[in-house]
Amino acid sequence: MNFQVTVLKILVSYxxxxxxxxxxxxxMAILATSGRDWADRTKRLAARVPELDIFSQGLVDRxxxxxxxxxxxxxxxxxxxxxxxxxxxxxxxxxxxxxxPVPPLPPLAERAKRRRERCEPRREGRERVRxxxx
Length: 134
Hints:
Layout: H1 3-12, E1 18-20, H2 21-32, H3 36-47, E2 60-63, E3 66-69, H4 71-81, H5 85-98, H6 108-133
Antiparallel strand pairs: 1-3, 2-3
């Protein structure tokens, strides 16, 4: 998980972009334990701005007991989240794969018949082995 991207995402979700440290820590803990999806997403976003430093670049200000995202921070986050044509193409391909129609299963009787046909040669082979073993 990328800490700095996560801070930007947390702050932008609060009214006025300001959150006290306790809220930031709580939200950070929730997101840190939410699974691989969040970690992968923040890594992808951070890769678009490799030299990200939210404090020295003026993206986040420290204010009385908390942090506040600046207009520059909102712009940086918008830039990171902007979809490129490659991202859109990948998402379109993935959604097409997910939404592709699934052929219906054959009726139960037909599936049972196929299973018998597959198992019959094995059953006959086992019976031959037993007959020749004695």
